[in-house]
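TEACHING EXERCISE
Course module: macromolecular assemblies
Task: Read the component lines below, then compare them to the predicted structure of the full complex.
Student: A.B.
Group: 4
Components provided:
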Amino acid sequence: MQTTVEDVKKIAPKATHEVFKTMSMNIGPQHPATHGTLRLKVELDGETLAKIEPEIGFLHTGFEKLGEYRNYNQFVVVTDRMNYLSPLNNNIGFAIACEELFDVKVPERGQYVRVIMAELSRMADHVVSVGLQAMDLGAFSVMLWTFIEREKMYDIFEAVTGARLTTSWTRIGGIFRDVPADFSKLVKDYVAKFPAVLSEIELMLNKNKIFKDRTIDVGNLTSAEAISYGLTGPMLRASGVPYDVRKSRPYLCYDKLNFDVPTRTEGDVFARYQVRIAEMRESLKIIHQALEQMPEGPVNSVDHKVTLPTKDMVYQDMESLIHHFKLVMPGHGLIPPKGEVYSSTETPNGELGFYIVSDGTGQPYRVRIRPPSFYNYSSYVKQVTGRMLSDAVSCMASINVIAGELDR
Amino acid sequence: MSLDFSKLFTTLQTRFGDAILSTSEFRSQQVLRVKRESILAVMTFLRDDASAKFEMLTDVTCVDGLRLPTDMQKEFTERFAVVYQLTSISQNARLRVKAYVSEDPCEIDSVSGVWDSANWGEREAYDLFGVVFKGHPDLKRILMPDNYEGHPLRKDYPLKGRGERDNFPKFNYAQAQGF
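Instructor-supplied answer key:
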């Protein structure tokens, strides 16, 4: 129960406006609790947030403009820099959007490999976001533990993609090379240890008095509000809407895998934390099944009008040499039909959409990125207005807003 | 897909008549083109009517048709297309609505009263393309600085900017005293 201006006025009706004059304060853009470069202009009434206005755009880098001057494969590199907690999901999302535009089909093995990496990346994102949320509320050790786990997952990413953070892994019609021979073993070994980590985190937080006091019944959003604000991902599911792009419009081979969409009905910060933990368990389930079902075969589309042929083929076969030449020369090769597609995938933060308008040249005419963080963060004002200042920190952490994706 | 789009488009055509310009399909994605004057009425109908039920506005954006090849330009009756991506969670369907806005007056009715998500989406479209959304509660720049001139995602705006990096206003010590 919070004391509002109205409550005080009931007790002291004669008090003048001067007594309740609010204080303006600036939070950020360089503040550890703002998760990147976010600025908040707040009007404080005592410790209550009378008015709050987020200001974004400090990390605006013009990705959408840049996309109009890069070809389709070059733009994959740009997508790494968007959500830097889960770059693989961005790579895969953009590749899937382009494949829909080009009408290319990725072979089954390629789809399974993508699913496994996407789920590992989702786990890396969720585990860090839970850790940072705990750190913002005072449980510092959880953050350290979760970062150790992410480092271990990054070891797998490094083995597969050659980079830890800026992965640039996918190509239109496939991935840049097949996974290493010991890929299954690497993933299996890691995944076997992960449930213990989740239990450890839950042991630290689920019964933690401070954590619960600061998260339960904080930042509540009803399902109608969540839908109206365009929330997606764990935030929407914590408000009781079982919407997941992996289920509603299955891409890759998600329709062949058996998993649940965890939801909560409370819609508060604690529910979002619970959804994230439950989603990591589902990711584990997906990875186990995908490793089991993963077939042998090529990972890239055999349509070499889109994907590069292997070097052996280029040296021995004239057709492949021509394909290679056309693909690497500007103005040849990778030319999509004229048209436009909107395609979206489920990234850890929610629905990441790409709206690509093609004018039939090598560069997209327009690439619109539909960032989940942008719309999730737009509900922030609704969540915290009228609440205590400390709740602002708690809510911000639960949104897991990534400035790179927010501002693009 | 449970939503019957041909039926929905017929309903829209009988209800709104001329306001529905055309419909099309590419890669099994449905597109609806609407006159900009009736965007608010059509969008409210699409959200509320039982045959549509698009509860969520996933995205608002804009496309500048200035440099399109001539055969694609035909679709653009005006310079800008404001593009709305709608999602129906209950019927598991998606629809793209487009409305065309001229260069001058570059304005269209805001749908921020219909969906809350339009608030920031329209601010971004205004910021980067200069499309004014009439009736928006707080239409101001969101990504670019408030004192920025021009709209960077327009096609006539150069990739490397107009010298903003070199010519930004500098304060000297005497001016700074006033702050």
